[in-house]
Amino acid sequence: MSENKSILESFKPYPSKYADLHLIKIQADHSQPRKNFGITSADHSRLLKSISTYGIEDPIKVSEIETDRYLIIDGHRRFSCAKELKLVTVPCRIYPKMDAGELEARRYEMQNNRRNWRPIEKANAIHKINQEYKNISKKEIATLIGITQKNLFHYTELRDMRMEYIELMVSHDMKEYQMVVFMQLLPKLRKIKGYEIDDIVKIIFEKVNDGLMYRRTDFISLAKIFSTASLHEEEIHLFLEEANMSVEGLLERTQLSGVSVQIKNLIKELSIKKNLNIKLTDKEKCLFEDLYKLMEIYV
What we know:
Blueprint: H1 2-10, E1 18-22, E2 26-27, H2 42-54, E3 60-66, E4 69-74, H3 76-84, E5 89-95, H4 100-112, H5 119-132, H6 138-145, H7 149-160, H8 163-171, H9 176-185, H10 197-209, H11 216-227, H12 233-241, H13 247-256, H14 259-275, H15 282-298
Parallel strand pairs: 2-4, 3-5
Antiparallel strand pairs: 1-5, 3-4
Helix pairs in contact: 2-3, 5-7, 9-11, 11-13, 12-13
């Protein structure tokens, strides 16, 4: 215990020392724990574009290992991008030489204390950028901040969403892609018997929380089912009533009642023929006679 205490007490804040260091004086730490930087990934491309536009905003953290030689503690991806962009120097926060244990402990703290943007925080930041650049196109804004126009639109929608829905998304720790598909689902929702839209939204979040709705396809499938809700009202009502029923289970039930969709399509086709004054063929008349006999039995 006393040994641990002496180690902790040996750590101390270092005075801030910043300088632009030549790339040839810096070396990557190949023994550092985070290996998969995704050099050809979208994340790397995004960082590469950011550095080419703005420069390196967050200095690379290095430790001096000998005169004019520095080991990277934090910032390997920035260093990789700098080399790819053929930069001569990079901004660095320089730490003095330290033993391997302290270096690893500091690296862990630097990387462990970071928190990703929450989607609503991104939405608010993008809104401020939009407000400042009112005279440029959405495409230019999307390019400026390195996102697609589609995502720019979704972030705008997210910021305009009712606060209670945003609070529900945050409290249920929804992933960013889930928020996007939920926003696409929301306009499709409609009252189902005694369930108002707000009631349905709360049930959806409960199912997300219980792991019954988590895939992108779950939200897309539910949106499609609600778009023909008049044909599937009983099945949707059961989905809302049964806490353990998944979207997949609802989808199976709506497919079993697919005859409703066929009847609806038939009515649509007949209406078109009638409006265009197109007469039925003899074969069609025979089929409708058979259908009429069946309807007398079922209706």
